[in-house]
Here is the input.
Amino acid sequence: MRVSELASKESRVNRPSDDAPQYVITAENLTKRYGDVTAVDGISFRVPAGEAFGLLGPNGAGKSTTMKMIGGVSQRTSGSLSIMGLDPEQHGPEVRAHLGVVPQQDNLDEELKVRDNLLVYGRYFGLPMSYLKPKADELLEFAQLTDKARSKVDALSGGMKRRLTIARSLINEPRILLLDEPTTGLDPQARHILWDRLFRLKEQGVTLILTTHYMDEAEQLCDRLIVVDKGKIMAEGSPASLIRDYSTREVLELRFGSERNASVGAELEGIGERLETLPDRVLIYAHDGEAALEQVTARGLRPVTSLVRRSSLEDVFLRLTGRSLVD
Amino acid sequence: MTRATTTTVTAPVLRAHSPEVSAARARRWGAFYYAEQVLRVMKGYGWTIVMYGVGQPVAYLFAMGVGLATLVQANGAGAFGGVSYLTFIAPALLISSAVMTAANEFTFPVLDGFKWRRVYYGPHASPLTPEQIAGGHIIAVTLRFLLQSAIYFGVVALFGAAPGAWGWVSIFIATLAGLSFGLPLMAYAATIKEDRGQFAMVMRFIVMPLFLFSGTFFPLDTLPLGVRWIGWISPIWHGTELGRVVSYGYEEEPWLTIVHVLFLLALAVAGWVLSKRQFAKRMAS
Here is the structure.
């Protein structure tokens, strides 16, 4: 009820159309300080129901802290925050009852068997065993862990543990799923399996909130994202619109060897729209990468390697902050 | 007469109850939900608990109460209030056993929850509160104390070392003593950020002296005043004296009996309050 009240109030202010979205999360000037360190510095965003919303940024940007505040386990220093119309500081258990949480570090109970981890977790929501037993089996199937049901958690690979953590977060059928760095530390195959599972949840209308420092993950999964750096929002939009707004269509990557990368900059002046010199390579932002490469060779420059690729969120981040996402 | 019956078979729809119901249940029963988890983990080492519960008293009662007793009693049983040495030390061993279990159950698992495997942070993301997680841990360990002490008392009774009709009350006294030692320790364990062997120090420099100088193997007043205070601040001594009162009718001033109970309760309650506060503080950051 409070959600609809909130949504209707906001629709009057911001969205005059009839199909105004219902915001499941609203943050205004959200701030978190630890002593002198400001981890989250006055960020504001809204997430409508059913959206896959990402927080993209390097390690230490304040993503996890934001997630903890949304998850109702960390108190904000100032600002306002509402989850399903409720303030997580006043209604912690009620807010957390709406959520599924996949933390950055797995915290499964390694002394319990795989299936028991799901049962025990469901009990925290007061769910009865008559519901939990079939639900646990269903989720093990979803997480492709049925044949591991009676194994100890110890025996699982990293990717399996991650999938079990996701299965565990779904035991209460949450409408909002918080995923903090869901695929960090997984091999490419395990990541793709995980992404596939997350897509399915999205199709079922579950609101996904995820943090990541992987641009490909953000591009694959997010409808909309905020780029966060040093606790502040640098940009907001869909992956495609961010790339459109902050980068060119293509990028030409050139390597001249670590000695020459820095000095060659002057000779490349005027090619493409923008030039970025990194220690290991030079990036030329251009709408037509091949044409830019022709210009480079026409000037008599011979890079050791050259590569033309589409712009990515990595380029957006580099443009916004002057730094790479993954150091 | 025949009657046509129509049965409609519908597949049961698996639906979780609403978040509101989850939150209301968790607010009310959360500590018990977490206790359930701890008990499931304990079930994994259930045999150890039972064997510890049986093996330890058998070994101790036999070594001390039967072996050592033959020497001790050669000097006359007067020093032990007119009961056999075995009867004298049995309550002390029962209480000490609970306290030693407390020194394990309220230390390593707490650091495991916060630091090593971070198991507390799973339920922390659920509707449970940090206070309930602390409470659940305490409930589960209390049940372990009760079970272990009941087994211990059974063995004591088999040795014929609990002659009084109220001896079984010492099961609850042991549980209370375990909590009064364990809960302040739990509050301390919850403050530890780096494991630098603090728990080994607790065992060596707190638990062992308390075990030896709490009127366990000889009456406290046979010790010089310089070390007698160890007994006065020791949950083992207060528990043991109470245990002796109920198990063989040891005579002491009634006010002293009340002091024993109040001392144990005060430590347990203080430890409980501090633990809950520390859990909430540590998890909210």
